[in-house]
Design goal:
Distance between the termini: 25 Å
Strand content: 5-15%
CATH class: Alpha Beta
Shape: globular
Number of strands: 6
Strand order of the largest sheet: 4-5-3-6
Radius of gyration: 16 Å
CATH architecture: 2-Layer Sandwich
Number of domains: 1
């Protein structure tokens, strides 16, 4: 998985296209509940790009505290990858939201379709498993951030793996079962702290939570 991290850095066509802070993402708007903030602008699509996603459960329901549902999500990932190929660089499943770092193949740009199919597939599986045919699993939309350069990649890569510590579920990243830490930590040092994450948010970095 670390090889994927390095390869994405080398070929991601979004790199080198950093906008000045004053011009970047002007439509960010916080709603009453900042945890539900969404971008109010046309999504950016880059062929072969790398993207950070946050998917949140409906009404912040703690569906993914159930290990069976976590497994269903991972099965859904593998299923969708079989007919919409992509590289899953990193992931973390939290009880009420999920983070993904995904790299698309060259020539592919429609990540919205992939996320839509993934959410639909996982919803169907969860409804069947719980015998709740009308269950609404997800918030209608999702958070997306286009990875712009190597530093941006590092920030989001580390944020995903540090997320369970940030939310107080565990004391160290290797204690959380539902992330890609096992395959990604080999040869890669994860160095974030709660203070660093707070500092990033104050500088305008948002992670869709």
């Amino acid at each position: 998985m670390y090889l994927n991290y390095c390869r994405v850095q080398l070929r991601n066509p979004a790199y080198g296209c950093v906008l000045p802070v004053s011009k970047a993402e002007p439509g960010l708007q916080l709603k009453n509940d900042k945890l539900n903030c969404m971008r109010k602008y046309i999504r950016k699509y880059v062929e072969g790009g790398t993207y950070f996603f946050t998917m949140v459960t409906k009404n912040r329901r703690l569906l993914f505290q159930d290990p069976d549902l976590c497994n269903l999500f991972l099965i859904g990932i593998d299923k969708v990858k079989s007919y919409h190929p992509f590289d899953l660089v990193a992931y973390c499943i939290l009880p009420d939201h999920i983070h993904l770092l995904m790299s698309l193949p060259e020539g592919v740009r429609d990540y919205s379709k992939i996320i839509k199919v993934l959410k639909r597939s996982v919803t169907k599986s969860i409804r069947n498993h719980l015998n709740l045919p009308d269950l609404v699993v997800w918030q209608d939309r999702f958070w997306e951030h286009t990875i712009r350069d190597e530093r941006d990649m590092q920030i989001h890569f580390e944020y995903i793996l540090y997320n369970p510590v940030k939310h107080g579920y565990v004391e160290s990243i290797d204690q959380w079962k539902w992330s890609s830490i096992d395959s990604e930590a080999d040869g890669h040092v994860i160095k974030p702290s709660l203070e660093q994450i707070d500092a990033l948010k104050q500088k305008g970095n948002s992670f869709g939570e």
